[in-house]
Amino acid sequence: MCSGPAETTIAQIGRELGITRQGASKNVASLRDRGYVTLSASATDGREKIVKLTPRAIDYLAAQRK
Predict the structure, then answer these.
(1) What is the pLDDT of residue 35?
(2) Could you say which DSSP state residue 36 is in?
(3) N vs C: which end of the chain shows fewer Cβ within 10 Å?
């Protein structure tokens, strides 16, 4: 979800996975703690956080595809 060119929010992740925003937030926090994603404030909505993959996550996904 976060590997495309479009920005992805925690709320969008929740909708895509069919879970609550709180559940998505907990999952994202776990990924952030392990160094797979970063969070930044949305330029359009201060309540939303933009989720971006780190180089570590990109490398992991590339290895999984191989």
Answers:
(1) 97
(2) S
(3) C
pLDDT at position 14 over 80: yes
Give the integer Cα–Cα distance in Å for 48 and 21.
11
pLDDT for 43 equals 87
Helix pair angle (21-33, 10-17), 10° resolution: 110
| Measured CA angle at 52 (ends 46, 56), to 5 deg | 150
Q: pLDDT category, 3, cuts 50, 70, 90?
A: confident
Cα–Cα separations (whole angstroms), residue 3 to 46, 60? 22, 12
CA distance 51 to 66: 24
Provide the pLDDT for residue 2.
Answer: 79
Phi, psi of 39 (to 5 degrees): -120, 140
